[in-house]
């Protein structure tokens, strides 16, 4: 997964050193270990990750028949986020601009075959998808360029220490949004130990993830 993220990030102008990639690989290796993935198949170095990604891409075949269902589940969360916007104008603008751009970015990073299958229920034409893909990727490249310029300002070491101590401001805002949505829809809070006491019965009803009762 981290190799796929790195590959797309490089396309947007983000530069990585080998030590950066090895650090990200170790992070995801631990995440995979926590989720129960066998250590024998978890890459420990970035070069191993590249080899694994190459094998996956060469053998993964066509998009699964479950891809539209996965996309539908993701759309429910998109709608939940939009519905949480208080202003009717804000909700309309988000649905008309931000959500299509997210879909365009999904198409861009997923490729034509998988991206088209995942967004099949949205009824986009191929021309529309390609336009959204171009627009979204261009905006991301622009954002990366601005971010690189901003981070090159004096005081970089101080900002890094502040982020290490208090978290990244952007990620903190996402965590806060998830917390708000969790409370609004009576879901579990988004903590690392949220599923420590979960049982199989907790996952039997997955038709609407936003209507699950609080436990």
Protein model, in words:
The chain has helices spanning 2-11, 18-34, 46-59, 67-83, 88-110, 112-118, 126-151, 156-166, 169-184. The longest helix is centred in the middle third of the chain and has 26 residues, at 126-151. Helix 5 packs antiparallel against helix 6 and helix 5 crosses helix 7. Helix content is 66%, strand content 0%. It has three domains: 1-60, no CATH class; 64-152, no CATH class; 154-191, no CATH class. By secondary structure, it is mostly helical. The protein is globular, with a radius of gyration of 19 Å.
Strand content: under 5%
What level of helicity do the residues show? 55-70%
Number of helical segments with 4 or more residues? 9
**Unreliable runs, pLDDT <50, ≥5 residues?**
206-215
Q: What is the alpha-carbon Rg in Å? A: 19 Å
Strands, count:
0
Our measurement of the CA-to-CA distance between the termini, rounded to an integer number of angstroms, reads 31 Å
Mean pLDDT: 77
Largest sheet: none
**SSE pattern, N- to C-terminal:** HHHHHHHHH
Instruction: Specify the structural class.
Output: mainly alpha
Shape: globular
How many individual domains? 3
Give the secondary structure arrangement, pairings included.
Layout: H1 2-11, H2 18-34, H3 46-59, H4 67-83, H5 88-110, H6 112-118, H7 126-151, H8 156-166, H9 169-184
Helix pairs in contact: 5-6, 5-7
Summarize this structure briefly.
With 215 residues, this protein is mainly α. Helix content is 66%, strand content 0%.
Give the tags.
215 residues, 3 domains, 9 helices, 66% helix, 0% strand, disordered C terminus
